[in-house]
Amino acid sequence: MQKQQLLYKGKAKSVYETEDNDLLILHFRDDTSALDGKRIEQLARKGVVNNRFNAFIMQKLADAGIETHFEKQLSDDEVLVKRLDMIPVECVVRNFAAGSLVRRLGLEEGQALTPPTYELFYKDDALGDPMVNESLSVSLEWATEEQLARMKELTYQVNDVLKALFEAGDLILVDFKLEFGVFHDRIVLGDEFSPDGCRIWDKTTKKKLDKDRFRQSLGDVIEAYEEVANRIGVPLS
Ligand code: C5P
């Protein structure tokens, strides 16, 4: 499958059309962004690490019966995916308090959230991805009530599968973000799952092993991604 027209250039991935109207190619770049794209740096190996990480996770989710857009890994930094009609909402599950939740409510980082909480954010860099809810998402016709219910159900299923996977590597899945789209009337998981879009801590030391290392300028960003990959069995070469 060959790359054709560039369809969209995101902050970390470029999306290309293919000769098949139902399929797209995602190219994982080394670009790393924070502050809604206002800070961008190149981190060597990131595209390759995230592509391999994502392929491994998408396969695990498929094995658990969760439909994803993943078709096959094409190269070190490219993947073939189904073309979804994306819903402009980010679905976040939090097992422990961190990030924007801590800032919003003044909570202590690491406070357990039992049961895990679920939040929606409108995907819009210019607006800083503001928090929204299901009611607004229906009123603004981003998705139907049924679609939003399915997204929530699937996001919690992903949490169950991945919490166990990371736990086996002595890692804590703190929180993560998913994006969904519609493929022939079905809600299907799209975008990516990599340390760019989740928080992962070492179970014992609570060391941050995700994109917070970049956001907070802690250093060794890709080394941390590789450590997580090694601990959960992602083949990196
Ligand atoms: O920033 P916040 O605490 O709301 O992020 C929750 C989770 O969603 C984190 O794992 C973060 O990496 C992810 N996220 C993301 N893309 C965004 C916003 C948040 O992947 N635009």
From TrEMBL:
HAMAP family xrefs: SAICAR_synth
Keyword Nucleotide-binding: yes
PANTHER family for this protein: MULTIFUNCTIONAL PROTEIN ADE2 (PTHR43599), SI:DKEY-6E2.2 (PTHR43599:SF3)
Name of the protein in its database record: Phosphoribosylaminoimidazole-succinocarboxamide synthase
Entry similarity comment: Belongs to the SAICAR synthetase family.
Major enzyme class: ligase
Keyword Magnesium annotated: no
Pfam families: SAICAR_synt (PF01259)
Assigned keywords, A-Z: ATP-binding, Ligase, Nucleotide-binding, Purine biosynthesis
Organism lineage: Bacteria, Pseudomonadati, Pseudomonadota, Gammaproteobacteria, Moraxellales
